[in-house]
Amino acid sequence: MSLLEVNNLVKHYTRRKSLSNKSRPAVHAVDGVSLTIDKGEVLGLVGESGCGKSTLGRLIARLEEKSNGEIYFRGKEISSIKGGSLRLLRRNFQVIFQDTSSSLNPRWKTRPIIEEPMLNFGMEKSLRQNKCDELLDLVGLDKSDAEKYPHELSGGQRQRVNIARALALEPALLVCDEPVSSLDVSIRAQVLKLLQSLQQKLQLSYLFISHDLAAVSTIATRVAVMYLGQIVEVLPAAGLEKAAAHPYTRALIEAVPMPDPHRAGALLRPAVRGEPPDSSKPPPGCRFHPRCPLAEERCRIENPVYKKIEEQHYAACHLL
Ligand code: SF4
């Protein structure tokens, strides 16, 4: 049994009527997503900005209500539970956001920030203090950092505080939503390495969301590729560059910045061509067809079936 299983999850945002009182089409943020995450597994979730990755993460962490579909955690359907049961369930899921500042109360020092989730679950003071000291050590912060305010810490240190706070209740799954994107390049690798070592040490499962395929492939076990609210390919992270088969995944790989051998230090490679379509009006047939260099006539009409390509490798494309 998987730790987490998502079946045909849908999130549509209805929009207010326009000034002329015309109803406007709903935004299809997540449109029929199914996936699994095993215990101790890191599932990378990649795709361009606005493809629905963060919404999917928030749905899984139960920070947003679904429009349709099911979410199973350890075999139990959890997408509709509410009240006290939801509060108890939430300790199993924690989210690490991109913005290192907004998730920390600027008026609180590090210690109460890290201890707050434990306080909310009734842990007594001495246990909280001991656990907080343990967590500071675990994430590579100094004991003296416990007495600092967020503005006295660097971006990397603030993200370490966020990680320590997320681990306070010993969750099973961390939803890491672009956790290193706002950090300086030099700090990114350190925080990524920290997340990787914590995952291994604590046997955690991650949904690791990023637009950066290179960052995802260094930490993930498998990679799911999302386009306009749908998963178009899932495959093992090892050997992804060669094995990726969907034209969108191939385009993302081509867009990964690589040093240009003719211009020292330059970062050049063509990006995915064109802009993603409006998610309130997804194209018919294959949603990627307006941007796909291999599109055929049927791609404009028929939705490709999501099918098995090889062991642990699935994709939705008429050519596969
Ligand atoms: Fe391209 Fe057609 Fe495959 Fe879609 S189904 S990715 S348009 S080839």
Describe the structure using short key phrases.
8-stranded mixed sheet, 22% strand, 320 residues, binds iron/sulfur cluster, Rossmann fold, 4-stranded antiparallel sheet, globular
Q: What's the SSE pattern?
A: EEEHEEHEHHHEHEHEEHHEE
Multimeric status of the protein: single chain
What is the level 1 CATH name?
Answer: Alpha Beta
Beta-strand level of the residues, as a percent range? 15-25%
At the third CATH level, what is the topology name? Rossmann fold
Number of strands: 12
- Low-pLDDT stretches are 258-270
Portion in helices: 25-40%
Bound molecules: iron/sulfur cluster
- Rg computed from alpha carbons, rounded to a whole number of angstroms: 21 Å
Question: In angstroms, what separates the terminal alpha carbons?
Answer: 29 Å
Q: State the CATH superfamily name.
A: P-loop containing nucleotide triphosphate hydrolases
Question: How many discrete structural domains?
Answer: 1
What form results from the Cα inertia axes? globular
Counting helices, strands and paired strands, the structural category is alpha/beta
What topology, given as strand order, has the largest sheet? Answer: 6-7-8-3-9-10-12-11
| Annotation field: number of helices | 9
Quote the average pLDDT.
90
